[in-house]
Amino acid sequence: MTSARLRLSRAVLGTVLISVFGLGLGVAPVQADKLDDQKSQIDKQVENGKEDLEDLNTTLAEAGAKLKKYQDALPAAQRKLTDAQGRVSAAQGQVSVLQKKLSTARASKAKLDAERESTQEEQQQSSQMAGKIAAQAYRQGGVGGNLSMLLSSGGDASDLAGSIEMASRALQSQNQALASLRQKGAEEGNAAARLKSVEEDIASLKKEADAALATQKTARDDAQSAKDEVDKILADTASAQTTLKGKVTSAKKQLDQQKSEQASINQQIKERQERLKREAEERARKAAEEAKKKRAAAAAAAKKKAANAARLAREADKAERAAGVEKENSTPSSEAPSQSSWGLIIPSTGGYISSPYGWRPTPAGTIDYFGTGGYVHAGQDWGYGGQCGAPIKAAAAGKVEYAGSKSTHGIIVSLDHKIVKGRALTTNYNHMSRVAVNVGQRVKQGQTIGYVGSTGNSTGCHLHFETIVDGSYMDPMKLLR
């Protein structure tokens, strides 16, 4: 094939490739924007989930403190209940003893009342007998008068002896009646004194029993209050434990949902890139077929129009360069290329590398969300020695996908760079003090998009720079070297 024909074939091929790729690229951005919108929406949901997780951490801490408070208070309440129950038992024993004493005293009083009543009847009978004797003696002039009368009568000695014996018996009977009367009177006095003592004992025991009953009631009330307190502590503890378990279950479910959503969007981005690659390859194949046909036609035309060949050759050189760029962009890349391939620049102005990409312990003063003591640091940090406000530059030209606050990331800007080397590229700039761009705005490489700050989960002024390739985080230094 002659040089003119070769240049002609390249020109036709380049023209066809430009035509085909131009038509295809007119549709792809619309589809990409739709998926990017979905990604942005899911990212917001994930951020909201992180905020909920922060709230949950606070709630779990509060529930744990409340549970510990209940558990600490339980032993004291149980001791209080045991003490109150012991006082109830002691009061019941005292009441029982006093009631027995009171019953015994009342029985003694009843016995004394009966004995006193019997003594009063006997005393009354003795008093009546003594009265009769006294009346008879009065009527007969007394015992001495009777004796004088017997001596002066001059009767028989045997009659006199009999009369004296009768008088002696009468006197003895009178003395016995008087002695019995005095004894009954003394017994009556003793019974009255004993009865008074028993009545005083009964009054004292009743007073003590009433006081013991009051003490028993107070002890029972204290015991019931202590029991109610223990029951409430147990109920509150059970409630706190149930709430705590529910929160833990909810947290696990939320984390699982976030992982599922993240996997879903990553899969969609991967499928989008594969589709774009297939479409680019298909366009290239069709363009090659069309170019082959055009080459044949051009070769035939070249024989007839030599003058036109030179012009077509010049166009072929230009089209060849355009076709070569498109072909290179449609070729998948298995590894992150060097700086010259990705075309990124370092986004920081000044500063020093303070923390690289990869696993690191949780910094002091920040939140350990998963309790693992560390996490995968998904970006590259540049520190500024505590000084905020340095400009942050766009690492590459792109479209502002997000500009604002995102929970633990603080104030961020997210740039979508579409397809670079056949792979989707997004860059994030976190912890800014403020942004300098708006969502939807297209920025140039090196343009100021915000300023260094320490917002979100941060311990000092720094730039946290992330590179996301096909939906997965990649070490930024591999793209910047």
Description:
The chain is an alpha+beta fold and 481 residues long. The chain has two domains: 1-332; 337-481, Glucose Permease (Domain IIA), CATH 2.70.70. Helix content is 68%, strand content 14%. The chain has seven helices and twelve strands. The protein has helices at 3-25, 28-140, 142-152, 157-304, 306-329, 339-342, 476-480; strands at 352-355, 358-361, 374-377, 380-383, 391-393, 398-405, 411-420, 423-435, 442-443, 448-452, 462-469, 472-474. Strands 1, 4, 5, 6, 7, 8, 9, 10, 11 and 12 form a ten-stranded antiparallel β-sheet that branches. Strands 2-3 form a two-stranded antiparallel ribbon. Helix 3 (142-152) packs antiparallel against helix 4. The longest helix is centred in the middle third of the chain and has 148 residues, at 157-304.
SSE layout:
Blueprint: H1 3-25, H2 28-140, H3 142-152, H4 157-304, H5 306-329, H6 339-342, E1 352-355, E2 358-361, E3 374-377, E4 380-383, E5 391-393, E6 398-405, E7 411-420, E8 423-435, E9 442-443, E10 448-452, E11 462-469, E12 472-474, H7 476-480
Antiparallel strand pairs: 1-4, 2-3, 4-11, 5-10, 6-7, 6-9, 7-8, 8-10, 8-11, 11-12
InterPro entries: Cell_wall_metabolism_enzyme, Dup_hybrid_motif, M23ase_b-sheet_dom
Coiled coil: 164-215
Organism: Galactobacter caseinivorans
Write out key terms for the chains shown.
single chain, 481 residues, alpha+beta, Glucose Permease (Domain IIA), 2 domains, 10-stranded antiparallel sheet, two-stranded antiparallel sheet, 12 strands, 14% strand, disordered N terminus
